[in-house]
Design a protein that fits this description.
Structural class: alpha/beta
Low-confidence stretches: none
Mean pLDDT: 96
Strand content: 15-25%
Number of strands: 16
Distance between the termini: 45 Å
CATH superfamily of the largest domain: FAD/NAD(P)-binding domain
Largest sheet: 5 strands, parallel
Shape: globular
Helix content: 25-40%
Radius of gyration: 23 Å
Number of helices: 18
CATH architecture of the largest domain: 3-Layer(bba) Sandwich
CATH topology of the largest domain: FAD/NAD(P)-binding domain
């Protein structure tokens, strides 16, 4: 424990965000950082609990009390190595993870959790600045070749560990750059792509092979894949978006959220084709349908594109401000979350369902909404019912569908591989992340369903361990 009385004498201090009127005019990261002294003081608040619920709450099993203590004592190398021992890229989760560790922190009982996520990000940045983070290629190679299909967090996590084990790892990505969801799904104002590129350079220096613009199943056949590699990991994500099949869905101006976000990320990266028709919010009334993180990202992006107005709606009821009796600590709190994007100028509404899109000359002009209520039936199941007389028409020239993802895309690669799917349409795997085809494994959203980046990282770790065992026992 850094300071036995730290949690009593040092209040929680968040770094906060760049000034609102500054950040909405660019795509630079909005979150600020505390100075090194303040960061050490925040680390001193960790109580090194006998039962570290933060460790329990973290999907990757981060040894949080240990590296908090190292931060407090100024041991930058020790703090980084402990942090990196359970997470291949903590600089990324330190920026975008919703921090279930903090929700499970004992101090969260009084809403004063340790600033674990911010400390994590600062620890890695200090380590890079001090030259502590360097490439460490494996000293020997096993001669086994592994293909990782998909370069999102699950694929990169697995690829890193398999490469460290001495296997020759090739990561295939259908897009023009490595990173998957991290690259083109998350806005630069939350995650600068320089952060990704810095880690990727380390992976390259350690011997990993990246191949972009390769659509496995088309550019590389199933037979070529099986013939060249001893094992294959599918980390293709859950890219099938949940659609909204209502009247007017085909109007110009109704788009999936990820199409909108991906296009803007490519624009920021200077990779957007001049011939590609832009999805722009400028001077438009924007309606974001869906209340999750992706919807929040659409809000922030629309504001930066100078939208006339931005409204985000959710079909579910508004969450409580504080934990309710049936949602005790240390479980994840089902409470209202407000992002930096929401603070930038957005109306948020709940219990609203979209009835239809209304257009003029093929272009979206308005959306018809209706209020809904959620009631339990005799079996205790929640049912949604429209509230009579609550229909309303709102002006809208751009509607962004941000209602989550249902499953991985089956058509193409997955169907060609002859894999089994579970009841939800995800790739079916056993406890070892092994599919119905012996040398094929799957990890992340492809087998779990759409979830958090930190869950994908852990899934990649589990898959890597079992692929290594599979190859060594072959």
């Amino acid at each position: 424990m850094g300071d036995p009385k730290g949690f009593m004498t040092v209040p929680r201090k968040d770094a906060g965000y760049r000034p609102l009127n500054d950040r909405i005019h660019d795509y630079g990261e909005v979150e600020q950082t505390l100075n090194e002294n303040d960061r050490a003081l925040q680390a001193s608040r960790c109580m090194d609990c006998g039962i570290p619920f933060c460790h329990w709450g973290c999907p990757v099993g981060s040894k949080i009390p240990e590296w908090q203590d190292a931060i407090y004592r100024g041991r930058k190398d020790e703090a980084y190595f402990i942090l990196h021992s359970t997470n291949s890229f903590p600089e990324i989760t330190g920026r975008i993870c919703p921090a279930p560790c903090e929700k499970a922190c004992v101090l969260a009982i009084h809403d004063e959790a340790v600033t674990i996520r911010e400390n994590e990000c600062a620890t890695v940045e200090q380590a890079f600045e001090a030259g502590i983070v360097v490439a460490n290629p494996p000293k020997t190679r096993t001669g086994k070749k592994i293909a990782v299909i998909g370069s999102g967090p699950a694929g990169l996590s697995a690829a890193d560990l398999l490469n460290r084990a001495g296997h020759l790892v090739t990561v295939f990505e259908k897009a023009d750059a490595i990173g998957g969801l991290l690259r083109y799904g998350i806005p630069d104002f939350k995650l600068s792509k320089n952060v990704i590129d810095r880690r990727l350079q380390l992976f390259l220096d350690e011997g990993m092979i990246f191949k972009t613009n390769v659509n496995v199943g088309v550019d590389l056949s199933k037979d070529e894949l099986y013939g060249e590699f001893d094992a294959v990991l599918l980390a293709v994500g859950a890219e099938q978006p949940r659609d909204l099949p209502v009247e007017g869905r085909d109007l110009e101006g109704v788009h999936f959220a990820m199409d909108f976000l991906t296009q803007q990320n490519k624009k920021v990266a200077g990779k957007l084709s001049e011939n590609e028709k832009r999805i722009l919010a400028k001077h438009k009334n924007v309606l974001v349908i869906g209340g999750g993180d992706t919807g929040s990202d659409c809000v922030g992006t629309s504001i930066r594109q100078k939208a006339k107005s931005v409204t985000q709606i959710e079909i579910l009821p508004k969450p409580a401000d504080k934990r309710e009796g049936n949602n005790p600590w240390p479980y994840w709190p089902n409470t209202l979350r407000t992002s930096s994007s929401h603070q930038e100028g957005c109306e948020r509404r709940w219990n609203l369902s979209t009835k239809r899109f209304i257009g003029e000359n093929g272009k979206l002009k308005q959306v018809e909404l209706v209020q809904v209520e959620w009631l339990k039936d005799t079996n205790g199941r929640w049912n949604m019912n429209e509230v009579p007389g609550t229909t309303e028409i709102v002006d809208c020239e751009l509607a962004l569908l941000s209602m989550g993802f249902t499953q991985p895309v089956h058509v193409g690669l997955l169907d060609a591989l002859g894999l089994d799917y579970d009841q939800r349409g995800n790739v079916k795997v056993n406890g070892n992340k092994q599919t119905s085809v012996a040398k094929l494994f799957a990890a992340g959203d492809a087998e779990k369903g759409a979830s958090l980046v930190v869950h994908a990282i852990e899934a990649g770790k589990v898959a890597a361990k079992n692929i290594d065992t599979f190859l060594r026992e072959a």
